[in-house]
Amino acid sequence: MHIAVLMKSVPDLVEDIALDEHEGQILFDEMSYVPSEWDDQALEEALVIKEESGAEVTAVSIETQDSDNLLFTALAKGSDNAVKLVGDFDLSLTNRQRAQIFADYLHKQPFDLILSGVQAIDDVDGQIPGLVAGIMGWPHASVVTEVRVKDQGIILRQEYAGGLVAEIESSTPVVVGIQAARKPPRYASIAKVRQVAKSRQIEEVEVPLSNVPALTVRRFYKPVASAHAEMVDGDVEDVAARIAEILQERNLLRR
Amino acid sequence: MGPILIVMENGASGFVDSSKELITKGREIAKNLEISSIAVGFGQDAESQLKNLPVDRVIAITNPELSQYHPLAYEKTLSEIVKKEEPYLTLVANTTMGMDLGAGVASSVSLPLIAYCNQVAIAGQEVVATSSVFAGKLMAEIVVPKSGAVLTVMPGAWSATEDSGSPQVDVLSVDIPPSMRILRTIEPEKSDVDITKADILISVGRGIEGPENLTLAEELAEAIGGVVSCSRPVVDAGWLPKSRQVGKSGQTVKPKLYMAFGISGAPEHQQGMKDADLIIAVNTDENASIMDIAHFGTTVDMLELMPALTERLRGE
What is the ipTM of this complex? Predict the structure, then answer.
């Protein structure tokens, strides 16, 4: 089984989103980026499958600002190969463009299983797994929490509201959007990533940027909340006292 | 301009509310733009459920196996319908099913997708969709292209339709591709507590930092007479069971008191708890999305506040 894990970085939400409020456009170059947490889950599930059944794992990312770090981290965690898709790309790529770039690369490769995060915080125009599968004409399932190899195919678990789960058997090739891996994503120390960066290579593959159905975002803006919480200030004891008082006023305390 | 196509999702009894909400809005847009509305449903009850919907036409895919969501069969069928009907808008609720289905259909028929949509407005000749992105931190205002688009709509964006009608009914059955097969459906594990029945929820998110701190939440819950629930990351980390999860892929709750500790309030989480009578949020970020729906908020350290509040409630 040869598994590709499609990965990307997203703006770090610990910081504010850099926004030109006048133009209503995101300033992509003015933010710091972190790996998309769901892609990290997808990588973990791929590595768990590899440990179980000896699959080969290839992490794939599109060259934007910090794709090298993302890919070296994947190698440090246990990915067998790392592929960087290079071309005339920048951080403002839409997901549809990303999906097309991934698909252009993938359809020439012998992968059986493609995993990616179920969603990312910036997927205004759709989620990568479904977009890639639709372009390639492959079956797919998203919101998946478990993938196991069985004979020539896979068995996956897809989640629905209320915790209901369907167990689905699928032949390969297939694209799967991972909500959560069976285990929390493993950690690779900075030292290990640095060591890998010195000793391992990232394969670069040139991919053209094709035309894809585009959306015009007229403007991005910060939501104006219709309401905001009444803030309770002070030290911890003050706040605890005030909250107890609020609960008392509303008869939410047992005594 | 093509019709509005609305995809209906089956629930435990009839269509889910998030699909009925799409009917409300779909009809309104169709009326304003003077185009027709079509609803599509799946499964053995599709015809009987669809035939009274207040739309112009319904398409019932009556294969009994499709009463349950089948990723490949739904996507292939819907893609064929979209190719044939050439709708201006295809509306799907952004449930777990909709998230799976929307992107696949849009890209297989080469239409753009507008995800996480929570508003659609007609402004002159333009239809403008607004989506909530970056975990609710930004809104994106998007002009729907004249050539059409697929929209995945956040549940709760509009009220569910209660109207009825007598649409033209088309019935068909489809070939189910053999490459994907549903083996079984697994009900969620029954746990010691049912968070949907609790009056008070002490809910923890990423801010709990590690499983060793859960005791603080449990002690507070015990002191106040509530139970501990959580947001998705806590379940994904394996610190609490799935049965305790509030949100889109967990439970929808409506307690008298919801205390959110270290939960940022992503739209998926809000979907499951925004109707609580009283929401108190504890988060170091005063601008976290949870503060927009909370009644009271504070930025003190939750790991200090929980024991302080517990002590106070115990009368110590």
Answer: 0.90
